[in-house]
Design brief:
The complex is a heterodimer of chains A (116) and B (894). Chain A is mostly helical and 116 residues long. Chain A contains five helices and three strands. Chain A has a three-stranded antiparallel beta sheet. By secondary structure, chain B is of the alpha+beta class. Chain B is 52% helix and 15% strand. Chain B contains 29 helices and 22 strands. Chain B has a six-stranded mixed beta barrel with strand order 3-4-9-6-8-7. In chain B, strands 14-15-20-17-19-18 form a six-stranded mixed beta barrel. In chain B, strands 13-21-12-22 form a four-stranded antiparallel beta sheet. In chain B, strand 1 (147-153) and strand 2 form a beta hairpin. In chain B, helix 18 (501-536) crosses helix 26 and helix 18 packs antiparallel against helix 28 (857-883). The chains are: A mainly alpha (116), B alpha+beta (894). Chains A and B meet through helix 2 and helix 3 of A and helix 2 and helix 3 of B.
């Protein structure tokens, strides 16, 4: 199965949100909005496209559990997703790469201030 | 429709199914939120939602497309499960699947390979189909090889053996005594008018002495054959008709047997209809001959004899018995008929006897297409060699994983055979089209034989066999080459694809072989082309432009004695008065292929020669020489004053004067026409005309005697030649009307322009030249593809070398010439070998050549020029690629 070598920024955000527990699509979007303070706004197309690709790639999977939110009538139709083992691995690998990137940036005196 | 639904449509079905509902909800929520922020915000939301959906759906679809392509092509190396579990069939199927995938992945390579094989195999199927239809299996009779025609040779008259219109009824009776034959039959050819419909119809007829149908081995589909009574002299009038005539003239009427028809004005009953397979020199009507053999002079030789070998008798035995019979006749009859001296009778399978004229050309063409196939195979071998060296790694992996060498060979052979079969299938389609249009190239003389060429099981089998053999041939060398590699070496070095020294030599050998074969074909085509042109531009000695010819046969009961001659005189006068007509003549035959000949004797100065004096004899009206524009050299022409009651006269041609009169004044010499056994009168020579080609376009002129139409009563069947001011064919209708104004019951047949007659007489050269030209062109294209492929490969393999040369200061032009020079060297070698091969095989071609030697330097020069230009064009792009090599790029990896 083909999957992106490294995760794109929106996808990384989606996976970070899911790392905190299973959520349905729109909830993921709202959480990303909240966390990035509107810097990253996932449109519905991008959102569900990313979900489909992640699911096809075996990085997330549907789950019956709805830990984070109580259910009401509307929620009943919604699919909930969580990270798979493979998803966790991919996320960790990507974050490590990003971490090294940030470390390298810190070594630069002109950039150090921004990252402090 | 809402915005959400419209946007959802952009996505693939899987997405709509899985996320459709949530997607719509999300869109709705987004829009609701935007609306609370005002009109402007809500408009902006529509835009951004739309842009987002378009981008996302495009990404998704692109991804799906990539996945689909991957799934189709990413087969990788198939794993090999333990051999115990798989049957042979599984392996074959697996190899087949793999082969197909290989080819689908390289459409360019596959197309070139399949197409070149298709052209080569198609050519072979085409020629084989023609040979099968015309030479190998022309007749659908039982055991056709045991059906023989009896031919005769009179060394005293000519060296030729004739099979058609060759024997007399008494000679037939001699032959009939032979015990080597289970059945013997003979027939005379003629024409009969059938009436009993709207228009009189002239039907090509065979008159049978004895029942011929059992000899041929066919019985009627309707009715019966002739009875003994009907075949006896003065028997009840009965007729048997061909399937073709039954369908066309009688509409396939099943009650035909009770219908009354009139043949030449006499009532006759049709007693049988023969099956469609019966082809008897194109005749459609069969009648009992009804004569007494004893009443026909021994030398009236116009009958055809067919016989079927008795069970267990070989052709050689039959011929031995015929020799004995001939010797007996020689002994008893030579005193009266001197031509019997050493005469020979020969039995030959009928098909071979009938078609011996086209056999040499047919076999040369079969050889030529065989060469084309060899070229195509050499080409493909090269392509496969080049490809297999790029597949070294794959094969090495397979070997390393434990695949046997035989298993790999089989895989590679499967690949090449699959390719060859595809080529064969396409080739058959090409052959089918070719055979359908080949009919246009085959002239009437063979169409009237009723032969047909098509794709039948034999042609199919032949093509299949060729495809299989080519597949194995093409795959074998690369397979052996590839499976010999040491997997260790191949896996280690992966970037270097440069060919080994022996590989290069193999590829170059193949190219030289291709070029040599192409040269051979080009030379052959060139020589045939020149022969054909020579025939076209030959000085024939007569003028054919604007001449229309047709034949009339006047029934003797209505035109007795001199009446036939008088009719032709009247007809000529009427036609000459028509607008647009320049000249009209009547004659018993016209050039270029005169057939009627006669013995004669001179009053004085007859010399004893090895052969008896013979000459062509033509009955001609006064205007004959003017109509054909043949100049009179001495004496006078015939005039209207030369009648049956004036002293008989003749005109001879130059060849006659030269051969028989030598240095004597021809005018006034007297000769007796006919063989010496009959009482004859002296005929005086009154004129000499110039020679023209009267023995076929390519043969030397034969001596010819002309006698006036009005001084004889034997000929009631003459051709009318009409020379028009402009187009010959345009006159046909009005000439027909003129004939029927004189005699409404008189059919006009064999209507042809002289141009058509001439075209038919050189058809063999034309057909061979056209077909061989096509094959040579295909060969040349294949060779060019070969050169291109091998040179491209060798240039890419030698990139580093070129880089080094350039880095060391070589000019780009030098590098280019390095490649071109190599191609020229290979071409020169191929040319030399091709010319040498032509010199060795020249005998086969010589019979087809006219007025050009097989070693014609002009043709060789032209072929050299063509070959050099094609080789240079094919090598140009690889050569310029070599010259464009960037030395830095090329040397980076050193």
């Amino acid at each position: 199965m083909a999957r992106p070598k490294s995760l794109s920024v929106p996808v990384l955000h989606i996976m970070l949100v899911l790392a905190d527990g299973a959520r349905h699509g729109y909830a993921i979007k709202q959480e990303v909005d909240r966390r990035t303070k509107g810097a990253i706004r996932l449109g519905p197309g991008t959102l569900y496209e990313a979900i489909q690709r992640l699911e096809d790639g075996g990085l997330i999977e549907e789950t019956a559990a709805r830990e984070a939110e109580p259910s009401n009538g509307q929620e009943a139709q919604r699919r909930y997703y969580r990270l798979t083992d493979r998803g966790w691995m991919a996320l960790r690998a990507d974050l490590r790469t990003l971490g090294r990137l940030v470390d390298e940036a810190r070594a630069n005196p002109q950039l150090r201030k921004e990252l402090a | 429709m809402t915005l959400g639904r419209a946007l959802l449509r952009l996505f693939p079905a899987t997405f709509r199914k899985r996320h459709g509902v949530e997607f719509l909800q999300a869109i709705a929520q987004e829009r609701a939120r935007a609306r609370t922020a005002g009109v402007l915000s809500s408009v902006r939301a529509v835009g951004s939602l739309t842009a987002d959906a378009i981008a996302a759906s495009a990404r998704l679809r692109a991804l799906q497309l990539c996945l689909a392509i991957h799934r189709r092509f990413d087969s990788g190396v198939p794993s090999l499960p333990p051999p115990a579990k798989r049957t042979n069939m599984d392996t074959v199927l697996q190899d087949l699947r793999y082969a197909l995938r290989q080819y689908l992945r390289r459409p360019g390579f596959t197309a070139i390979a399949v197409l070149s094989l298709a052209l080569a195999i198609g050519g072979n199927s085409l020629i084989y189909g023609m040979l099968d239809g015309f030479v190998f299996h022309p007749f659908p009779y039982p055991q056709p090889n045991r059906l023989v025609a009896i031919g005769v040779t009179f060394p005293k008259l000519s060296a030729e053996t004739t099979y058609v219109e060759a024997l007399s009824p008494l000679e037939y009776l001699d032959i009939r005594r032979a015990r080597s034959f289970s059945r013997v039959g003979a027939f005379d050819l003629g024409n009969r008018n059938i009436t009993g419909g709207e228009v009189p119809e002239r039907v090509f007829t065979a008159l049978l002495l004895d029942d011929l149908f059992p000899v041929i081995g066919l019985s009627p589909v309707l009715g019966r054959g002739f009875t003994r009574d009907e075949l006896a002299p003065k028997g009840p009038p009965a007729a048997i008709i061909s399937h073709r005539l039954w369908r066309t003239r009688f509409g396939g009427d099943r009650n035909i047997l009770s219908r009354a028809i009139r043949i030449n004005g006499q009532a006759a009953s049709i007693v049988g209809v023969m099956p469609p397979g019966l082809v008897l020199i194109g005749t459609d009507l069969w009648l009992p001959w009804g004569g007494e053999p004893q009443s026909v002079p021994r030398n009236r030789r116009q009958y055809n004899v067919l016989a079927r070998l008795a069970p267990g008798v070989s052709l050689a035995q039959a011929n031995a018995e015929l020799s004995a019979i001939a010797a007996r006749v020689d002994q008893s009859e030579r005193a009266t008929f001197s031509e019997y001296e050493n005469w020979r009778l020969t039995a030959t399978p009928w098909a071979a006897a009938l078609l011996r004229d086209i056999r040499p050309a047919a076999f040369i063409l079969l050889g030529a297409v065989g060469l084309v196939l060899l070229i195509a195979c050499a080409n493909l071998t090269n392509l496969f060699l080049a490809r297999s060296s790029t597949r070294q790694r794959e094969l090495a992996v397979r070997l390393a994983l434990g695949a046997g060498r035989w298993r790999l060979t089989r895989l590679l052979l499967t690949e090449s055979v699959v390719l060859a079969l595809a080529g064969g299938a396409l080739g058959l389609a090409i052959a089918w089209l070719g055979l359908r249009s080949a009919g246009a190239l085959i002239p009437g003389q063979f169409q009237t034989l009723g032969l047909e060429a098509g794709i039948n099981m034999r042609v199919l089998g032949w093509s299949l066999m060729l495809a299989l053999v080519s597949g194995l041939l093409v795959g074998l060398i690369p397979a052996l080459n590839a499976t010999r590699t040491d997997p260790h070496d191949s896996l280690k070095a992966d970037t270097r694809t440069g060919g080994s020294r022996s590989g290069t030599r193999l590829r170059h050998t193949l190219i030289v072989a291709e070029l040599a074969l192409s040269v051979l074909l080009l030379l052959g085509a060139g020589l045939l082309m020149r022969s054909f042109l020579n025939i076209q531009h030959l000085d024939r000695g007569f003028e054919s432009d604007g001449v229309l010819t047709m034949r009339l046969t006047l029934p003797r009961d209505r035109y007795p004695g001199d009446a036939a001659g008088a009719f032709f005189d009247r007809l000529s006068e009427r036609i000459a008065a028509l607008p647009g007509v320049r000249a009209v003549a009547a004659a018993s035959q016209f050039p270029p292929s005169n057939v009627f000949d006669t013995q004669f004797s001179l009053e004085r100065g007859q010399r004893e020669e090895r052969t008896l004096p013979t000459a062509l004899i033509t009955v001609a009206s006064p205007a004959y020489f003017d109509t054909l524009d043949v100049p009179l050299l001495r004496g006078r022409r015939f005039t209207a004053m030369d009648r049956i009651d004036t002293p008989p006269i003749a005109i001879v041609n130059q060849a006659f004067a030269a051969r028989y009169l030598q240095d004597r004044e021809p005018i006034g010499q007297r000769l007796a026409i006919g063989s010496p056994d009959r009482e004859r009168s002296w005929t005086t020579i009154v004129g000499v005309v110039a020679d023209y080609r009267n023995n076929g376009l390519t043969q030397p002129t034969r001596p010819e005697i002309y006698i006036p139409v009005r001084q004889q009563t034997a000929w009631n069947q003459l051709f009318v030649l009409v020379r028009s001011e402009s187009s010959a064919a345009g006159l046909l209708t009005i000439v027909r009307q003129t004939v029927s104004s004189l005699d409404p019951d008189q059919p006009v047949y064999f209507t042809q322009t002289m141009a058509e007659v001439l075209a038919a007489s050189s058809f063999q050269q034309r057909l061979s030249a056209v077909l061989l030209g096509i094959f040579a062109a295909v060969a040349l294209v294949l060779a060019a593809i070969g050169i291109y492929g091998v040179m491209s490969y060798s240039v890419s393999a030698r990139t580093q070398e070129m880089g080094v040369r350039l880095a060391m200061g070589a000019q780009r032009r030098d590098v280019m010439w390095l490649v071109l020079g190599q191609v020229l060297k290979l071409s020169a070698l191929g040319l030399a070998l091709g010319v040498a091969a032509l010199f060795l095989g020249v005998r086969a071609l010589e019979g087809l050549l006219f007025d050009v030697r097989a070693t014609d330097p002009m043709t060789i020069a032209i072929v050299t020029l063509i070959l050099a230009s094609v080789a240079l064009v094919a090598a140009w792009s690889p050569a310029s690629r070599a010259a464009r090599v960037d030395p830095i790029e090329a040397l980076r990896y050193e």
